[in-house]
Fold these 4 entries.
Entry 1:
Amino acid sequence: MSRVARPESLAKRWAGRGPERQLLFWVLVAMTLGFLMLLGAGPKEGYAVRWADLVPLAGLALSFGVAHLLLTLLGFRGDQVLLPVAAFLCGIGLLGQFRMGAFSGNQASLLDVLILPGGVALMLCATLLLMNGRYRLLAPPLWFWALLSVALVALLLVTGQRFRGGVYAAGYVTPTEPLKLTVVLFAAAFIAQHAKALAQWSKPIPFPPLRPLWPLLAFAAVLLGLLLVQRDLGMALILSLTLLALLAAGTGHLGYPIYGALGATLGGWALLSVFSHGQRRVETWLDPFQDPTGAGWQVLQGLSGMYAGGLWGEGFGQARPQYTPIAESDFIYAVIAEELGFAGSALVLVFFVLLIGRLDGIAARARSPFGALVATGIATVLAVQTLLNVGGVTKSIPLTGITLPFISHGGSSLITVFVGLGLALAISDGEPRAGRRQSGRKQSERRPGTGRKGSVSRGSRSKEAAVNNRTSNRSTSRGPRQPAVRKSSDRRTRD
Amino acid sequence: MELLNALFVSAPWATLRGGLHIAFLLVALYVLKQVYDLRAALGLRHLARPRAGFRFAVAGVALLFLAVLGYQASWQLSGTARPAFVAFMQLHDRRQFNPAHWIERGSILDHRGEVLAESRAGPTTDGQRLEVRRVYPHGPACAHVLGYTHPRFGTSGMEAAANVSLNGGSPETLLDWGELTRQLVTRDKRARGHDLVLNLDADLQQLAYERLRGRAGAVVMLRPADGAVRVLASSPSFDPNRVDAGLFRGTDPDARLLNRAVDGLYPPGSVFKVVLAAAALDAGLDPVLDCPAEGFTTSRRYPRIRDHDYYAARRAGRTWGGHGRIGLDRALIDSSNVYFAQLGVQLGHEAFHRAGDRFLFNHRIALTEGLSRSQFMRTARIEPIATSDRYGLAQAAIGQGKVLVTPAQMALIAAAVANDGVAMRPRLTTGEPAATLGRFMSDATARRLSGMMRRVVSEGTGRGIDTPELAIAGKTGTAQNPFGASHSWFIGFAPASSGQAAAGLAVAVLVEQGGYGSTTAAPIARDLLLRAQQRGLLP
């Protein structure tokens, strides 16, 4: 198996993660500049800067520094880009929230300060617990994830309270946030298990195989139904798109996204005719000037801020994003676009694309189909969530009331995203070293990625081979490699 | 920390902050560059070879982000191209640094440069900030043409049609894009929108409105040669400086928002005889007809169409002998209903409707072009007359029944007569080139008609307005109105001498329920033409 051994010596481990260190360093330099800019605006408005104002920045530096050191010490082999990118996005988020007054004065609660380090700590926990291939242990209890998902929504339904059109549990925690992970875990495990059957569409008229599909359909129906009862359209949209992406990635059958898109269009149409709340949002989206001081106010204020920001922005602390309602959570992107200008907001989106690209890269390279699907799921959730938020704020699509990952103010969202990131990091660490492998040439053609249109299922067939063909010091990924022989012991480690 | 605070309030901090801003963006870019540079070291080679397909997924996501960014740019960078957005920001955005506040909306000027609408900056009532107010020095007189800009009610008229250009305009040429780029990069706020110059004459417009004041009506004046609109007045009007909600209630009995000059459809009465005369002459019809006092009808079942002189004599207790056998000239000069009713029937349905097409009836004509939106004038509405309905045709021939026209269309027809039969598109702004709408009648017909119309004023129904200073040609009209007293019409042009008429002015005056055209509408037209002469607008 793993021909890349975990680096043994500390020096090698230190050197191995040099790129991550370098990237993190420069990200922190950028954030320090940003904070300086931001703090500089304080005295002008009669607010003297105190040492305590540096706490968020220190928290950012410390948590990511510690995370990096810990991963280095333990010889983590996985991705080196995710951490710096997350640090950048979190830093932007901190700047944005600091700017909106989240940490100012005496109202700064301990919780606000601790959420970021807490999230990073949870991410580390997830990574360390699940690295070295242990993440596969999450696959067998798939029905536990399904039950947990339904239970979370049901819990919210029972205890929830309404606020700004959504349902929240006590303390404005959103217990549906973890759904993004539990649903991904369940669906990934289920699809990985039934990939072959799910790819068998009926021939003359393409129709999905209902027999293996129905448990997933039933689960989706119950979950989405419950979410719709709470009018959480945004979450329902994220989850259904993620399910479709997982089905497509897991089976390699394009029928799923195509049928899914049709179904979503019909379903969306039907839903909009039922939910006046959604209908209003669509109307506002189509013509915000219909009711500029009412329904269109928020998005138009956000856009006004952006227009005022122009190409370069006024600089952190210089603009007046507080004129946009709820700017610190859903409309944080408008704040960034106002203060850093179009250039700054484009930069942030580039970082998001980088993040999603890296996650997809992990999915493409993960040896186990389950791992690949989980990474795909996390990437999809982040992509959809970001697109829905940014699209809504820029009026590209109707507002859905979804937070921007890493950046929006909101503990539940941040923690979930971090745990997801930890999971992806763990998957990127690869499989445990198993020394007893021999190699054989037979299966070399069936390695994932050498096939045609890659799907995880094809990968799954050759997974045993794939697991074994890690080469220790391959200089290029395309070099010749040593195919491995199927091992029964390998089977057991799989889902 | 004190050091830091001191730095933040020190003078060079502003420059330093700008530097920090740039440095921040550069460092972020540098991180991306490093990710690219280090891509070999960052590759996850210890994992399997990548499956295909995922690259496409990432590319798809990246494309979606790009699309969102592109759309964002259409608001953030070229927001001036969205007039409603700029208006929203000017009204509702409290960010003082928002460039929208500093767009000084362009002024609207008349053809001599007199201000019709302008933006003036002044402090708000609370004195907190500057506010830009739109001022219309001529108030209600120009309200229908200019329209209004109002926080709640939006924009209308030219303010709406030229909104984009007034606010600075959307980039159209390469030069505009260059200018926009320069403003974006240098953060230079666009100081002022483009001015808009109208062909209107503020003085004549004001006079027209004053002469109409108190009555419902409309006045349109055009230059026949190029269609420049000198007057487009409609009454009753509203004050665009003080737009109130009452204006928009459908129950406003005066219909103050209605621009009667371009949207009001009225029975034309006798002024329509000009159209019929042109159609007949073009069709080669120039008969001498018997016009007895007892009038004309197509069937005994219908009331007889009689001449105005018959009713006047009867009211005076006298009897009138009728016109006897007269030709087209005399019939037009004396405005003989009996003659024209018979002429219409002789002309026939087909030729009548063909003439209607030629005169662009049942059309909308753009008064502005090259702006983001257009203002339109309606021409006329003529419902098809069944071939069996000869009485309907006779009625239509004298401008009653199924014929409804706008004052603007009647001015256009008068202008066509003055311009040797060719109608030029009415143009509100000086920026658009003159364009031909079409030929309404032949050259010869126009000249003949022109002479006849001159005689209407010198010896016919319009002789009340004949003045030695100016040779006015025209036609009066008293249109029976099923809802009350007759509408008073006058169409004409001056000077009537051939060769100069095209460079003069054509006019149409309508006064709702004003009674006789010769006593109500015609003097207004005369006063306007005389004033135009004083102002040097006539050759």
Entry 2:
Amino acid sequence: MDKILLNSEVIIYLLSKSLMMLLLFVAFLYSVVILKDWDFNQFTPKQFALENRSYLVSVIIVFALILKSFLILYFVHTIDALSEFVPGAMCAAGVIKANIYGNYLLVLSLASIFLSFVWMSINAMDIKSLDYPYMRLKTIFFMILFVLLVVEYGLDWLYFTHIDTQKAVSCCSVIYGKVGGGIPFGLDSVKLLVLFYLLFVLIVLSVWMRYVYISAISTLMFLVVGYYSVVYFFGTYIYELPTHKCPFCMLQHYYHYVGYLVWGLLFGGVFLLLDSLIMQIFFKEKSIHLTKVATVMLLLFVALCSGYVMVYYIKNGVFL
Amino acid sequence: MKQIVGKILMFVVIIAIIIVMFLAFGSSQGANYVYKGNSSFSVVPIKPKEYQCSECNMDVEDMKYAAEVVLDDGRTYFFDEIGCLVLWSKDKINIVKIYTKTVDTHKWIDAHKAYYSRIDNTPMGYGFGAYEHPKSGLISFEKMRELMLQGQNLQDPFVKKSLLGKDLAK
């Protein structure tokens, strides 16, 4: 445990997370006051002070949430670096499964990033309007998000303090290889690929035609299919090895850190698109710019994955 | 015109996705039968309904009587009770380890070291429940195997009557 907690990456990660939580805690305290005393129809000095303060609180939260979005990249880098200390682990795949908290932490981190995007979109709409129409909503939403972030912070500590450096863990070839069970839902590589490209076409078409519900369903499906496609098909072209199936190894320098780009484009694109769809469904906000950015990110993701396959074929004349 | 083309394209894509999903689910085998790569020949902890019994094809759901066998190539097969395991393994020569879940201590132990009751309410009704600690009326693995292969288990009405009709301790 000491080896883990004294690791420089872990120290930097936990300190950054602690600072972020401190900022969010201050924002949380102010949010309670704002929620209690907020009345936009009043013309009292207290209300004006609250309006000024709410802007400051929004800036603090936006800063902390953007920091949080970048911190997940550092978290992944940290657990990848810890694979040197955990016997059996060759990359972050083994380290994340070193105890029961790892997977929950990763999923909660991704979920809280998505909710942070939604909060920032509501905040942007609120600040753009003159009468703060979403002040109560965004404050309550932030409080719920804060509770989630506190749970995540607790999991951070539980995870890093419970990594046993004496106990061997499985490496990625065991977790994601034949023993791990392979592609779920009865899919094989061909069906997975067909679904991957069909879902992407459906997303583009439904975004273009403005069918928000179809966009939302296809985007959620694309997240799942995209993840499995990268792990079980496109990843093998990144590693140039048909038996190497792992979502984490591609984050290492051997593969030019391309995993950060691959996963960043997939999760970023999906989260931003879902965010823009939520804005359209619940707030009647068109958010065309956000939709365009998200679609371009997904397009780049598909192009990047397909590019690896094409380059391999051009270089070697065969598919894996 | 653009709208009509877009709608037709979307319809075609949705239908194609549904067909692919149907094909995928149609070929899905549901629960698994085998765990590969158990090179350490150790116990593979399983969850209820994660695997199917290789003998009777039922889901291994009730973990109380579950059993598993590890072959020399690391493949591990699962059974809903030791009776099924005995039937499945009668012709197998490459068995390295046999594990069973115990009724009294709820642990996975070496099946050869367990003691077997003949009157337990097991999933397939053969009646052999594994116990870690010996007590009167319990039999050894070899004896249980012999009785199972002879058909001398609770599925036989004569055996059932003779076993449940009198106290085994005597």
Entry 3:
Amino acid sequence: MPDPPATPDADLSIAEMLRIMDVARTLRREREVVDWQLNLDQTKQELRQRLMGMAGATGEPVTPEEVEVAIQLYYDNLHAYQEPPRGFALMLAHVCIRRGRVLFWTMLLAAVGLLIWWWW
Amino acid sequence: MTSGQAILGRLRKAQEDARADAARLARDALNAERELKDALEEKGKAVLDLAKHYLPELSRERVDATFTQVRDELATVVDRKERARAELEGRRDRFDESLRSFQQQLDEAVRQLDNTARQIEAAEKEIAHTLATDAEFQRLSQQALAAEHELQQNEERAEQIQREAEAKLPAYRESRLFQYLYQRGFATPTYQHRGVIRGMDRWVANLIDFRRARQSYEFLQKTPELVNREITRRREEFESLMNRIEEIERRVHEESPLAELERRAAELRKDRERLDKQLTRETELRETVECDLQRLESEGRFYEEALGRFRTFLSDTETAVLTQRAEESPERVDDEFVSRIAWQNQRIDSLRADVEKLQSQTRHAKEQSDGLSHVVRRFRQMEFDGPLSHFEADLDLDGCLERYRNGILSRDELLDLIRDRRVGRAGGEIAPDDYVPSTGRVLLQALGEIAGAAFEGSVRRSVGRRRYD
């Protein structure tokens, strides 16, 4: 007969307590993210004031409209994914992630080459 | 001697002349019938004009002024019209009475509804005052207003987040480099590779800034759902708040007489609608009766009936009587109508005689034409038109035909006279294939009479099959 499932009690191990704390931390972070997202206008307002204050302190002649456009541009590009520019590094990266297939075709071509050389 | 062919030609000519005469007489008879029909129509119009002149409207005075013979009949129509009018007027009066009653009831219902509406308004003001002084209701209302405003903003923001995620996520899903690292679990505890492979993956991750991209990807994937869940929770809170506010309002309503007043107002509204419908229906019925009354006067159903009867009477009345009446009256119009009727009567009598005469002549001509057709047919059946068939020179065929036309000779007598003047043998008597003995010829002739030309061949073959010794 199988043993009944263990009932939780006050004597939890440190690992279990850490796991529970992880869950609680995750929930807190999610709540913070949600609050931040739902109060984004307020966040933008605070950012706008700070930027204008900074511009005033440094003597930068920016207008509130320019700051507004810059903030909007920042949030539009936030979380947007963009691949690196085309070039040798990008090509090499694609070769790396397809290394199995590249290796297979290379070996095949080498074997064919060897066979041709041997028959020649 | 005259050949059979020549006799046949003259007989055919006489037959065609008779047929042409019959057709011409038939055409003349048809034309005469048309003229008679026109005359009858003209007389009908004149009689109608006279009837309208003597009876321009259906009233007792006008009927009394008409002919004594038709006066009672027309008076019956007047009686029926007056009875119909009295009945319709009675119905209209009853509808008027009913409409007055419904209108009074409707006015009373509207007055009571106005009173109730004023009481409801006062009760609503009292409820509003009570709620305005209730501290909890005020607090909850303000909370609900703020919550609703916030909920509205949250819902708009949630839509923005959803749109942002739908716009940005495809780039992550279409990137082979990002998907390679993400599916391998790079930068998570599940990633197991070591050595060169780990080094290559780290290099690729640095190239595309994988850590930041992974955070953004997970943010875009999870945030819309989290935000929606939070909005659902806040909506439930708002609903709960509204339920508490409505509970307070319901309690205040129940304590006030508003519910009773609203129930009464609903009943009064139903009564008003019912009375309104009844009033509309009764008004429509009254209008129908009014229309019937107007139609009775304007369309003149009874007048048309009386006019028809009067017209029939005038048509059947002697012209002399009509003339006498027209001369007695001081107007000249009726004299003109009567003279038109008299002229058409003369024309009708004359045309009717012509039609009868022409029809009789047509019948006679048709009979003559048929008789000559019979003679020609029999002439050919007996093969009097054969090459060896001849007739005596003293055969006065024109005289015989003239006597036939005048009815002195019948078709059979004409045929006998022609047969008696025949000399030689008919073609059929010398034909070896068709030879028939004398007994057979008699039978052949008898059957030919019965069957006619159409079955001539059949008759000949039937007799030929027999053996006569």
Entry 4:
Amino acid sequence: MGVPLSWYLTLSAVLFSIGVTGVLFRSNLIVILMSVELMLNAVNLTLIAFSQYMGDVSGQILVFFVMAVAAAEAAIGLAIVIAIFRNKLTVDINNINLFRH
Amino acid sequence: MFAEKVFVVASLVAVVSALGMLISRSPVRSALWLILTLFCVAGLYLTLSAEFIAVVQILVYAGAIMVLFLFVIMLLNLGALPNLERVDFKKGVGFVLGVAILAQLVFLGATAVGDFPAAASDPEATGAATAIAKELFTRYALPFEMIGILLLVATIGAVMLAKHRFE
């Protein structure tokens, strides 16, 4: 492997920060869910890089499980988005304030 | 070095398309940018010679999860909604916190750079599907079965959430 491990970790940190900024920055519920997926991908990249550099398969098994949980999370999250949209007719988090009143 | 060139190109495209996802006005464009990012991450897995995970990444993320996102965006017809994106105090805080987390992560990595493991002798051996399958069905057999139950529960939950009308 020609690429140093620190390059992968730096890229992963950048992608994770973009995901965090997306969750805090955007007000569209669907884009927030997409940012969460991006954060999961950044962590997966770190796990794979360490797994390959240390010669241990366990990291890749964990990535496999993270992908399964991400699929479940996307399905449930989007079902919640649809349920909210049916009641409030919006996916803007500034207009979803059920607990404020 | 071929792997380094692939890494540079894939990582640049990944970061640019992640930023594109962040600043796109329409959710459909955000989803398409994210798909490009996911493909680039799959390419990075290939530079790490983790072929199995790269294929699973394309199948599960680009093939299943993002199709689900695009399907829901189509179902809700979000393009017809008024665009309420505006710069305010909340967004400034979000941007500052994002940069702060990046600074923290880079600082942690820079202080630990001496402790990084040296490159493994045979990365192809740990990246192959046979090596992963051997571990997955012996040592991690119970978590594997539990993931199957989790996916079943998630499917039932998604159907129930989408079916019932909450008053």
